[in-house]
Amino acid sequence: MRLKNIAIRYGISTLGLVIIALGVGISIKSNLGIAPPSCPPTILNLRWTGISVGTFTWIEHLVFIAIQALVLRRDFKLRYLMQIPAAFVFGYMCDGAIWLFNAIEAPATNYAMQMVLCLLGVILAAIGIQIEVVGRGWILAGDQIVAVFADVLRKPFGTMKVIFDVVMVVFTAAFSWFAFGLLTGNGTTVIIREGTLILAIFTGMIMRLTDRYINKFFGPLVPRHE
Fold first, then answer.
1. CA pair distance 128, 191, nearest whole angstrom
2. What is the pLDDT of residue 3?
3. What is the band of 1 on the pLDDT scale with cuts at 50, 70, 90?
């Protein structure tokens, strides 16, 4: 029964990761800006094209895990190590989603279509995050590092999330300027633009709208006791 419960939880969480990854892929195709946590892996991929966005994503997550370990030290719990396989799973799911959307020959250039793709990215990200959380399986390092700093600094999670997002965008803009002489990307693929702000703000708003439906559908499927 324990193995069955674990399989159910991780199955639901994995579905959430798949949907989040699809959101990442479609937001990149929007060419209107992407979510702050995905900005650094994408700009690094534009500079070193031989290394995929997914690979840079799991490297980024491993850095987040190392920072957590340095900050928490003895309080770093063994279960936090589950962020490591989650990093690899999510990273390669992002690569899969990007490959899937490469059926579109080039990033969108029509503004109306760009906005549609951006909003689809918001919806997918919101739903995916909720399903991941409901499943109580995988822990994504991008979420956990925010929780760790919120706890250590005794700040609200929302406040630390805003700070985290700002740091991700500032790093990306600085690297973009250094590598390409632009703040927004390489001139072809746009990473930071109004879509970045839309994803940062409206993902949470969409989550508030869909929360009860996600919990109503997936909540009864998740074992509460093992």
1. 21
2. 66
3. low
